[in-house]
Specification:
Strand content: 15-25%
Helix content: 55-70%
Strand order of the largest sheet: 3-2-5
Oligomer: single chain
Shape: rod-shaped
Order of helices and strands: HEEEEEEEHHHHEHHH
Radius of gyration: 58 Å
């Protein structure tokens, strides 16, 4: 009797132990009864019917990452490139992920690799190298739609590396070098053109300023000549009036002035070196005396 009670107690402990299931955070367990799915256990303590119920699949509900191995892809312009990538996905429905597809990781990997060949094979090489974001977006849209019935959410697909053949890389390098040399030549020519334009504008401005200077100098020279002419006219008028009054000193002043100007012109000539001229010194002195007398008369009239 004691043995039976002990056995019954042990059986009860085992039943309780088998019926209580602890699910860790980030996991979900599917429960099967006689091989058929009945419900899903969430994180925490859960109770199942022992013996007839069992844990079917333990699904990771956290976001997971999967590397996509390298594969060769033929582009639209018949260029062979080697491509690899990475996929981020998350199980949203544990039951669908467990029972709608067999070997979930393998199925997702093959689906991604197939669509990489499809999407990238419809593009030129230049598009592959310059529109990587567009490729990622197209892959994400196609693969996410295809995995929705599996209870999977594909959050991101990234192409890690696109490697063209070595000879194609060398050709692209030569092309890039030629483009850079072309841009450098254009920039240099543009710089020379701008320099010539600035130099021409500077010369034009200098010519304008020089012409303005000559114009201003001409105005000033003309004004000075006009003033000199007016002064000479006034002097001639005064001499004429003095001569009209019979003033001999005025005549002497006029003749002496012209006499001295003639001697000055002869002395300033480039061809004249030494000139011997008979001069009547008494006439010159008398003329100078006449100039003095005229000055005294003018001062006495003002006073």
């Amino acid at each position: 009797m004691d043995n039976f009670v002990l056995a019954l107690l042990i059986f009860a402990v085992l039943v309780v132990f088998m019926s209580v299931k602890s699910v860790p955070q980030g996991m979900e367990y599917t429960v099967e009864r006689f091989g058929k799915y009945i419900n899903t256990l969430t994180p925490g303590l859960n109770i199942i019917v022992p013996i007839i119920d069992r844990i079917g699949n333990k699904m990771i509900m956290m976001e997971q990452v999967m590397d996509v191995p390298s594969q060769e892809v033929i582009t639209k312009d018949n260029a062979m490139v080697t491509v690899d990538g990475v996929v981020f996905y998350q199980v949203m429905d544990a039951a669908k992920a467990a029972y709608e597809v067999r070997q979930l990781d393998w199925a997702i990997l093959n689906l991604v690799m197939t669509n990489i060949r499809t999407v990238m094979g419809s593009m030129d090489l230049d598009e592959l190298l310059s529109r990587r974001d567009d490729i990622n977006a197209k892959l994400l849209s196609v693969v996410d739609d295809a995995t929705t019935p599996w209870g999977i959410k594909v959050t991101r697909i990234e192409i890690k590396d696109i490697a063209p053949p070595k000879d194609l890389v060398e050709a692209m390098g030569r092309q890039m070098k030629a483009e850079r040399l072309k841009r450098a030549s254009i920039l240099e020519a543009e710089g020379l053109r701008q320099s010539e334009i600035l130099r021409a504008e500077g010369a034009q401005q200098a010519a304008i300023l020089e012409a303005e200077g000559r114009k201003e100098a001409s105005y000033r020279d003309a004004d000075a000549r006009e003033r000199l002419a007016q002064a000479e006219a006034r002097a001639t008028l005064m001499v004429s009036e003095a001569i009209g009054k019979g003033d001999v000193q005025a005549i002497n002043y006029f003749v002496a002035q012209k006499y001295i100007e003639a001697l000055k012109d002869i002395g300033a000539s480039n061809n004249s070196k030494l000139v011997f001229m008979p001069l009547d010194s008494s006439s010159v002195i008398g003329a100078l005396g006449g100039i003095g007398e005229l000055a005294k008369e003018a001062l006495s009239k003002k006073s």
